[in-house]
Amino acid sequence: MIINRRKFIAFNLAILTTACTNKKQHKIDLTISAASSVQDAMKDIRVLYRKETPNVNINYNFGSSGSLQQQIEQGAPTDVFLSAAPKQMNALQRKKLLLTETRQDLLKNRIVLITLKETVNNVTFNNLNKAEFKKVALGDPASVPAGQYGKEVLSSLELYKKIDSKLVFGKNTRQILFYVETGNVDAGLVYETDVRVSDKVKIVDIAPESYHSPIIYPISVIRQSKHPEEAKKFTEFLFSEKVKNVFKNYGFSLVKD
Q1: Closest CA to 135 of 199, 189, 190, 192
Q2: How many CA atoms lie within 13 A of 182 on its CB side?
Q3: Cβ-based neighbours of 63, under 8 Å, separated by 6 or more
């Protein structure tokens, strides 16, 4: 009986040890759908989060906010959505696809006009209708928040219709940046933060904030998330002091600073 009892205790200890080991090794995958304009900052943030939460693997899905919105509406696996504008987040909220108590405003940005660094022409928003400027890149206003804001800026200056034939639409700000870098367009409208990742372009004009809607990046956990608690923890991590510094290094302003 003593031997059997010892075997029984050893067996139970083995089960407990295995259970604890499995618990420690259990990995959770989170999918974060985020606007293209935040991708560089978010990649740095993933490194920080992995150090603090090694059992959570962060997978990013970057794209235009409009495209990401559509993917979520169509059921694409998503735990957290970080949009470059409230419009897309509002649409998901109306369809009851958000955990609304987790929705918060995270970042702010600016719209700027860029050209190649070696450009010598005096380029500003006001003179884009001059004949010397043949092509101007802008995000598609229907799906790209930067394009929506850019259209508002040009409309405020009564230029949008005047330069309609010059406009080349991009699917996100990184594509517009590429168009300018390669000389396929004379100028482009992007976020101020996009310029931080290129050594080939320069800012030639900054849009007054009164010319467009406030550029706010809201974030929320998606209702269909399979790991809502872990998704909430990651979202809250983005508001921590160390992460705020990452965003600031990439040129973002914080809503709650």
Answers
A1: 189
A2: 8
A3: 33, 35, 36, 71, 172
39-52 and 228-237 are packed helices; what angle lies between their axes, rounded to 10 degrees? 110
In the chain, the N- to C-terminal Cα span, in Å, equals 68
Instruction: Give pTM, 2 decimals.
Output: 0.81
Tokens representing residue 209 in the block: 């904030």
Instruction: Looking at the structure, tell me whether residues 37 and 71 fall in a common domain.
Output: yes
- State which residues form the domain around 92: 16-108+217-254
pLDDT tens figures, 53-97: 999 999 999 999 999 999 999 999 999 999 999 999 999 999 999
- Length of the chain in terms of residues written: 257
Domain boundary residue, one of 211, 226, 244:
211
How confident is the model over 112-131, as pLDDT tens digits? 999 999 998 899 999 999 99
